[in-house]
Amino acid sequence: MSALENPAETFSFFVGVSGIEVSETHPYEDALMAAGCDDALILVVNGELRLDFDREAKSYDDAVKSAILDIEKAGGKVLFVERSD
C-alpha cells in the first residue's frame, strides 16, 4: 500500500502526565518540546500537567503511541489518554 492510499490524518486527544515537575523554576515546556511534543498545547490544571495534542499519523493508535514515547523521552509517565476528535 502506498502513502497515497493511507495518508496521515490529524488526531486530537488529551494526555494526563505525571513525573515531570511543573514549576516556574523547572523548564518543563522546553523538555516536552525537545522530546517531540511540539504539536501539543501544554496545560497545567490544578497543578496537574495535561497535553492537548493535534498529532498527525496514519491511525489514532499510531498518534497516541508516538505521543507516549515522546512524553517518556521528556521523563513523564502517562496517566490517561482521552480522545477529543
Average of per-residue pLDDT values: 92
Q: What is the strand arrangement across the widest sheet?
A: 2-3-1-4
CATH architecture: 2-Layer Sandwich
Q: CATH class, please?
A: Alpha Beta
Give me the secondary-structure category. alpha+beta
The radius of gyration computed from the alpha-carbon positions, rounded to a whole number of angstroms, is: 13 Å
Sequence of secondary-structure elements: EHEEHE
Main β sheet profile: 4 strands, antiparallel
Low-confidence stretches: none
Tell me the domain tally. Answer: 1
Describe the structure.
The structure is a single chain. The protein has one domain (9-83): 2-Layer Sandwich (Alpha-Beta Plaits), CATH 3.30.70. Helix content is 25%, strand content 39%. The chain contains two helices and four strands, in the order βαββαβ. The protein has helices at residues 28-34, 60-73, and strands spanning 9-18, 40-45, 48-57, 77-83. The two termini are 26 Å apart.
